[in-house]
Amino acid sequence: MCPKKECCVAKSGLFRGITGCKDKRLFNSKNSTTYRRLKKSWQIHYGTGNAAGFTGKDTIRFGDSGDRLALGGVEFGQASNLDDSFQEKSFDGILGLAYDNYDKGNIVPPIHRAARYGLLEQEVFTVFYKSVGNQRNVYGGVFTY
C-alpha cells in the first residue's frame, strides 16, 4: 500500500520509475486512531520490479460490520518506493496472505495471526477474481488457498 501521494519518489538506483502509485487508492494513517509507524524498513525484489518502504501497526478488519474479523496490532508494510511497472497492475497493494516461510521481515500474515488467536478454525482464505474478457490463462471465479 502506498502511504501518501508522493510515495513513489525513487531514492536509489534500484527503481526505474517514480509513478508506481499514480491512480492507486492510498492508505491514510491519519484516518486511524490506532495506527503506529514503526522504525523498520523492507525491500522486496519481485520478478516484475522492486518495492521498498517501512512498516506500521494498525487494527485491520475483514468482512461486513456485523460479521467482521478484527485484528489489533497487525504489522504491515507500506511502500515508499515502487518501480513504475506496478502502475500497470490493477491492484492497489498486497495484503500479506503468504505462508509464514515466504514472509519477509518476520511479519506474521493476518490469516496466520487470526488462527493463532483461535479466531479461525483453519488457516485458509478465499478470494474472488473478476473474469476479464476472453484472455488466455486469465481465470476468474472463487479460489481458496
Summarize the topology:
Layout: E1 36-46, E2 49-62, E3 69-82, H1 110-116, E4 126-129, E5 141-144
Antiparallel strand pairs: 1-2, 2-3, 4-5
Organism: Ancylostoma caninum
Domain Peptidase A1: 1-145
Family: Belongs to the peptidase A1 family.
Task: Walk me through what this model shows.
This protein is mainly beta and 145 residues long. The protein has a single domain (29-144), classed as Beta Barrel (Cathepsin D, subunit A, domain 1), CATH 2.40.70. The chain contains one helix and five strands, in the order βββαββ. A hairpin with a 2-residue loop joins β1 and β2 (49-62). One of its GO terms (molecular function) is aspartic-type endopeptidase activity.
In short:
This protein is mainly beta and 145 residues long.
Number of domains: 1
**SSE sequence, one letter per element:** EEEHEE
What is the arithmetic mean of pLDDT? 76
Question: Beta-sheet strand percentage?
Answer: 25-35%
The number of distinct β-strands equals 5
Instruction: Give the proportion of residues in helices.
Output: under 10%
Radius of gyration: 16 Å
**Annotated CATH architecture:** Beta Barrel
Strand order of the largest sheet: 1-2-3
Q: Count of helical segments?
A: 1
Overall form: globular
**First-residue to last-residue Cα separation:** 22 Å
**Which stretches are poorly predicted, pLDDT < 50 over at least 5 residues?**
1-19
- Profile the largest sheet: 3 strands, antiparallel
What structural class is derived from the secondary structure elements?
mainly beta
Query: Can you tell me the CATH class?
Result: Mainly Beta
- What's the name of the CATH homologous superfamily? Acid Proteases
What is the CATH topology classification name?
Cathepsin D, subunit A, domain 1
